[in-house]
Please model this.
Amino acid sequence: MRKFDKDRLLLGLAGPALALVVAFLLTSVVLLVSDRDPFEPYRIMVENAEFTDVQVLILNQTGTYYLAALAVAVGFRMNLFNIGVDGQYRLAAMLAAVVGASVDLPGPLHVLLIVFVAMFVGAFWAGIAGILKTTRGVSEVVSTIMLNAIATSLIAWMILPANLGVQAEGSNDLTTGAIPESGWVPGLDVEGGTIYGFTFVAFALGVVYWFVLNRTRFGFDLRATGASDSAAQASGVDARKMVLTAMLISGAVAGLTGLPLLLGQTHTYSFSFPAGIGFTGITIALLGRNNPIGIFFAALLVAFLDKASASLDQFGYEKEIATIMQGLIVISVVVSYELVRQYGLRRQQQKVGEELAAQARTNKQEAVR
Model:
């Protein structure tokens, strides 16, 4: 049993390790083809990450990416591909900002209201895809892609001054208005900046994610349904109910993705709010193999590539090098995981064959005696 666990751990680490090595090698090839130094950009990024202000930016970005990846991972554990995290997160952040700016409550209640609205909106938007899948068999991939586009247009319409938006005098920027200080989440002041308070909440959700999936009956049913819905139904699990529940939970977590930034820095929603975080979450969830610890290190890596590459153009290198590397990581993850899976199957078949051969020899020896 110990040997089996060791092999399983090594195989689990082999996938992301191989993906990262391949991604770095391919990025170096791209730099070589472009007649650039294939190693200097990495050195520059590492040196940039030594500054405390960059470290704070990386940690804050890690918290945001972590929430997005957890939302994706919940769907993955149910064999669902929730591509709509980006739309769910932006729509939730916008409406949560609207509600937060329109009320004046005591601090804890104000924050809880904003959090509830964000989770509710995210769950509602993901629930549409869940209902379409469970009642009409519509692929969640197609429906969530369409819902992303609808969310973008809906946000653009709602943020108009004639609707829910606010336009400051003399400014072309549209916002949802400022959230009063009672709705802010205090951060941790350190040398180099402030770590968002909600960043710690994000990491705590990773513990909740692990506990629910691995130590509760609900988590077992979720994983069982994702592995085989027919087997889950045979054991008394309502597969369609689990699909809808997983989409609702995934959307609720996605709704929290924008809160570290919203409650820790901007205190309002505008068109400058970052987009594409949901798609980055897919990369991180894949690289982290849906494991909360793996997701953390994957989010940290991607945040490092984002923030440490900001000054590459000052040294004659395009900062899009980090974007290229992230794209190569996605491709490498898919290929490397399949290679590791096939190797694991062959290894398991070999071990079973060796055990059967050993048992046959034992039986033969006993028969001779």
Remarks:
- The first strand starts at residue 166 and ends at 167.
- Strands lie at 166-167, 174-175, 188-190, 193-195.
- The CA atoms of residues 337 and 369 lie 48 Å apart.
- The mean pLDDT is 91.
